[in-house]
Amino acid sequence: MEITITIPDGAEQDIKDALGDNPGRRALELIAALAYRNGAISRPALGRLLRLENIWQEKAFIQRENAVRPLSPEEAQHDVDYALKRAAEIRAEKSQES
Predict the structure, then answer these.
(1) Domain assignment of residue 3, yes or no
(2) What is this structure's pTM?
(3) Please, which pLDDT band fits residue 18 given cuts at 50, 70 and 90?
(4) Does residue 41 lie in a domain region?
């Protein structure tokens, strides 16, 4: 989906001051935070939408945007799956070092 926003003449600098040098990215972040906070998307979906690399970036974004809400069962399962996968990766790395 693509969304186009027309900024009135003279307001460009105000928008840049409010949203930073990449207002398109910031607008996407604000939409994603609102959708997550309202329960419209899951945390993994939030990460995909924003192209975040891992669960820790997802959680940091949620904290930074004050979009904290209770985890859904699916999100809790995602956390468990991620932790198990990461633990297996660490064990494999350690066994290769030995």
Answers:
(1) no
(2) 0.71
(3) confident
(4) yes
What is the domain extent for residue 84? 12-97
**Buried-state track 22-54, b at ≥16 Cβ within 10 A, e below 16:** eeeeeeebeebbebbbeeebbbbbbbeebebee
Phi and psi angles of residue 51, each rounded to the nearest 5 degrees, phi first: 55, 45
Rounded CA separation 22/79 (Å): 31
State the Cα–Cα distance between residues 96 and 53, nearest whole angstrom. Answer: 25
In a domain, 2, yes or no: no
Total number of domains constituting the chain: 1
Give yes or no for a contact between 61 and 52, defined as CB atoms under 8 angstroms apart: yes
Q: Phi and psi at residue 83, in whole multiples of 5°? A: -65, -40
